[in-house]
Amino acid sequence: MMLKTHRAREVDESLEAKEVFLAGWVHTLRDLGGKKFIVLRDGTGLVQLVVEKGSKAFDVAQELTQESVVRAKGLVRTDKRAPRGVEVKVEEINILSRAKTPLPLDVSDKVSADLDTRLRERVLDLRRLEMQAVMRIQSAAVRAFREKLYSKGFLEVFTPKIIASATEGGAALFPVIYFGKEAFLAQSPQLYKELLAGSIERVFEVAPAWRAEESDTPFHLSEFVSMDVEAAFFDYNDIMDLLEDLIKGMIDGVQRECSDCLKELNYELPKFEFPIPKITYKDSIEILKKEGVDVKFGDDISTPLLRVLNKALGKDLYFITDWPSSARPFYTKAKGDDPSLSESFDLIFRSLEIVSGSTRNSSRDVLEESLKQRGLNPSSFEFFLRWFDYGMPPHAGFGMGLSRVMLMLTGLSSVKDVVAFPRDKKRLTP
Amino acid sequence: MMLKTHRAREVDESLEAKEVFLAGWVHTLRDLGGKKFIVLRDGTGLVQLVVEKGSKAFDVAQELTQESVVRAKGLVRTDKRAPRGVEVKVEEINILSRAKTPLPLDVSDKVSADLDTRLRERVLDLRRLEMQAVMRIQSAAVRAFREKLYSKGFLEVFTPKIIASATEGGAALFPVIYFGKEAFLAQSPQLYKELLAGSIERVFEVAPAWRAEESDTPFHLSEFVSMDVEAAFFDYNDIMDLLEDLIKGMIDGVQRECSDCLKELNYELPKFEFPIPKITYKDSIEILKKEGVDVKFGDDISTPLLRVLNKALGKDLYFITDWPSSARPFYTKAKGDDPSLSESFDLIFRSLEIVSGSTRNSSRDVLEESLKQRGLNPSSFEFFLRWFDYGMPPHAGFGMGLSRVMLMLTGLSSVKDVVAFPRDKKRLTP
After folding, report:
1. Most exposed: A9, A269, A381, B306, by fewest CB within 10 Å?
2. In the predicted model, is pLDDT for residue A95 greater than 60?
3. What is the value of pTM for the model shown?
4. Same structural domain for residues A80 and A138?
């Protein structure tokens, strides 16, 4: 038998005078006259329990500590003074797991510890209402992303994560010992999703990817969830159109499913301009120069430069398109009219790249040349290249970092904060 | 501009006399007195193109090879002789990518190569209609699984895949070199999903997991997609009820979304008995003994034994419950009335375990004892155990192997066949 008849959020005025069984964590405890007020928390939110003096339940409630797990039976009653206008008068209460005191991290207070402490005490930290809101927003966002893709005929796929060679260049790889041989963790599903687009046309994947990032920034993790799309017979403009729909879908999904979470985070989703404005890389460089930045064609546009650009443009969400071919990976297609530029884009949220995409090369000869130009050996990529002999359609796609998109959807400032158990150079537990 | 106005399957009688742009692969080519018939394939299926002699398109069509990628413009016309009663009279056709001949694997024929050959030539193999059907069934099944869980208030989570220590015992781990230190690939999200159930109550994850399986069987891979559920305030009976709903949901989803795929595979989904029958481990052993099998309490029930049991029971889908505690992992809860047995189950499809689940231990003392009994050192699990001091609810959950469920949903016989790019001891590419 399930331990509860209702979840916390489900207790509302419609249940007036009904008996309910609830179970959850003791969020707060308060004594008031001959009564104890317990705010009970579960995965849906909070509900107030009242235990009256003289009852057997009162004796049990005396033993309670914050974050202890309890099960309670009681009657629902409306009371304007209670949060949400409803409370449960407790008839029986059992302690299922008694929490030690003191807690290494306070769960109920909005007074927050620093991120390092919170990540060390993460299991308690995730119980905080703000983190519960973050986890719900994430689930809703990923769901909306997938739903939009299903509706456009995309299939969800699963690509191998243990691979024989690098996809995005040789640096930043984690080696795996695979039955005595060396292999690597996939930096992205790039080459496999291209092959799948070359087999089944429209695919997407939401899965972990790894980069051995030495740098400790609020925007990098060594393990991250990559949301990948690849489609045959699309070019980068088609992909930008699709991506715009996906961004809209995710924002709508979060607004619809999680308005209370946004409130909990005290965050309003930004109102973006649609269609999303596009600016070319070349124009971006010109604007930066006008802003006094010492930058030239071919340079990367790093986060500090994006900050300047963001300010100059006055846009919160924008595409930077047509990047120099030399600045993009070997699989990126050059522009027909100017091969020094590529059919590529980044989607920028303020000063953060959240998506990177392009039309891909679909010719074996061009790919081989492109690998050589980058000092890579085509024969190491034969497992990929050989399929281009057997009917490879034009195709395009993108990779989106879930945790970066989550910064846009939550207003938080570090990807470490939006990932349940982040991995970086110094963090391998919890 | 998108290269196509319609996908192959969308071309039907409602488009009579309309101009369409199509793009895809040349599935088959046929000459028939002054006409060429091209069956064009894309990710949705097939459509017949007709190219008439004397047209410019006819000259281009002369150059075509199987699996070449083309774009065609033409007029839709109904014709009872055509597959699906409709064809496209081609006005223009362009070759986007010309496939070499001969192909290393025939894509259009139902005459199939052996699995080893097909896995080597997998990108072509995935273009076969049967494999396209498998990929669509997989996408629909996972979608239905998630939808059912959302409707029951579960949140999708992402747990770390690089971990500091083993979860399911020390064997069968893949070591990762993590910034110069040794770490491992997660064998399952077990301990992290438990911690998340202890924070946010109801969670699920669909993600890769790894086992360094030495054995080469049709039911094992070294990398697999694990569908995991964990819920606070559930016990194993609640989880079996939930799992039953999920199985129903997946079967309904596949039936609804993919009836044509099942037809392509010439497969009918089995009609299971609901509620799913339950048999205890003890009774299973008794039945096996009656069938003349040399087996005793405490023994594992391996696939050959499950075959005997399946036959004796006459059931295609059944739970084996209440396994010996000694046969289950340390986190499994023992039964209150007989600690030699545990609150655990396997879900068996014919003779294959497709799900394994249990009520989990939620007491630190019991967990420490359980680790010791298995020769494991509690201090290695401190990253997990310490949270049990701070209010850990009773909880339960399961892990389901996607590729094994796919055998049930497709009628295929090897998990290597249902995974796009399977990984085993000898396979690291493609």
Report:
1. A9
2. yes
3. 0.97
4. no
